[in-house]
Design brief:
By secondary structure, the protein is α+β, with helices and mostly antiparallel strands. The chain is about 35% helix and about 30% strand. The protein has a twelve-stranded mixed beta sheet, sandwiched between helices. The chain binds coenzyme A (COA).
């Protein structure tokens, strides 16, 4: 049975059942990823940025002979932002290839269309059944990144200390657990805006309310949203001492849902400050700080455009190893809804 589902009001047992399904999906598709925990999972599913909405549905098994509700075997949500609906869909491995994924996508596509959105985007992990699923439904691959993972137990900490201090004179590094300090928020947002205007930074997709925000208010909102979702940001800044400008920044987030594996978000070095060892130094300093700030942490994952060779080289030096492709797929909503209706 497919029904609309509000994570804010869902009974705890349903949140727990969804977590079991999510972990079964991870075990099947990404067995090297750490299982998720119920750290703020409800908030993770419910909270959005101002101006965005997320609508969710679940596929639930029929009640058992004892009358107890059946487990949640599938879930989809669509995050409506800007002019696109970004979906997240998963189906328990034990019930795959029975049309559950298609059914969930059908309700989400119709609602997205009804809400006036024209396209649907989705993140698809390479080498998983999702590739064939979305391709069979007319989705087209629009963007490819490589996910790389760094294992902290393999880091050469002595070399890393050298990298962290190998920055040209005239810069100082600042570690900011929880996000940039208030007095640097404007400079921080400016540094992000500057690079966004010129090129893509290292890092991440725009679907999540990550702190990839280019004006101070938006940045504040996204930091608040991260906090509500149980995701803790850490930032290392390179400050150009003479001008007090933010010359570089790197962001890592430790999610309560999988606190042993952190996510690298943006890393940015402003164009005027390239060639001074900032990228390597801020990332190395971040790892050194995380080692004591987050004793549970064992890994960090990052996503890079394959063309971003400079960033990939620094990541390799730090110890990141390529893991798999991570792609963005897209489709026209009206065409998708039509196709799904035709399949029935
Ligand atoms: C992608 C996913 C949602 C598909 O769910 P599903 O219920 O198995 O999909 P359906 O049964 O509706 O399949 C629809 C069509 O997609 C295609 N398809 C789906 N899985 C496929 C596979 N493993 N191989 C080839 N084609 C496949 C087929 O054309 C299928 O139609 P058919 O069974 O009539 O041939 C499911 O595999 C899943 O949850 N994957 C994990 C997604 C995810 O988030 N992964 C990353 C984080 S772990």
């Amino acid at each position: 049975m497919v029904r609309e589902w509000d994570p804010r009001r869902a009974p705890s047992a349903e949140i727990g059942s969804l977590l079991d399904t999510l972990n079964a999906v991870l075990a099947a598709d990404l067995p090297a990823d750490p299982p998720w925990r119920d750290g703020s999972l409800r908030e993770y599913l419910a909270e959005v940025m101002p101006g965005e909405r997320r609508i969710s549905w679940v596929a639930q098994a029929v009640p058992g002979p004892d009358g107890q509700p059946g487990p949640i075997l599938g879930h989809i949500n669509v995050l409506l932002l800007g002019d696109i609906g970004v979906i997240d869909l998963l189906v328990h491995p034990s019930v795959r290839r029975h049309g559950v994924g298609r059914q969930l996508l059908q309700v989400a596509a119709h609602r997205t269309l009804q809400e006036g959105f024209q396209s649907i985007g989705v993140e698809v992990v390479g080498d998983t059944p999702a590739v064939d699923f979305y391709t069979s439904l007319g989705f087209v691959r629009e963007y490819v990144e490589t996910r790389s993972v760094l294992r902290l137990d393999r880091v050469d900490w002595t070399a890393l200390s050298g990298m962290a201090s190998g920055i040209s004179s005239g810069y100082r590094l600042e570690f900011c657990p929880g996000g940039p300090p208030d007095e640097l928020l404007d400079a921080y947002a400016r540094a992000k805006a500057e690079v966004r205007d010129t090129e893509n930074a290292d890092g991440e997709d725009d679907d999540d309310p990550r702190p990839s925000s280019y004006d101070p208010q938006r940045l504040r909102d996204s930091l608040d949203c991260l906090d509500r979702r149980g995701m803790k940001p850490y930032i290392v800044l390179a400050i150009h001492e003479r001008t007090r400008r933010v010359a570089g920044l790197t962001e890592v987030v430790v999610p309560a849902q999988h606190p042993t594996r952190a996510d690298q978000y943006d890393t940015i070095v402003s164009p005027d400050h390239r060639g001074y060892g900032i990228d390597r130094a801020i990332k190395a300093r971040m790892l050194l700080e995380l080692r004591s700030a987050e004793p549970e942490l064992t890994e960090v994952q990052t996503w890079n455009a394959q063309a971003n060779e400079a960033m990939l080289a620094v990541n390799a030096e730090l110890g990141f190893r390529p893991d798999r492709e991570w792609c963005e797929y897209g489709v026209d909503v009206a065409e998708l809804a039509h196709r799904l209706d035709a399949i029935g």
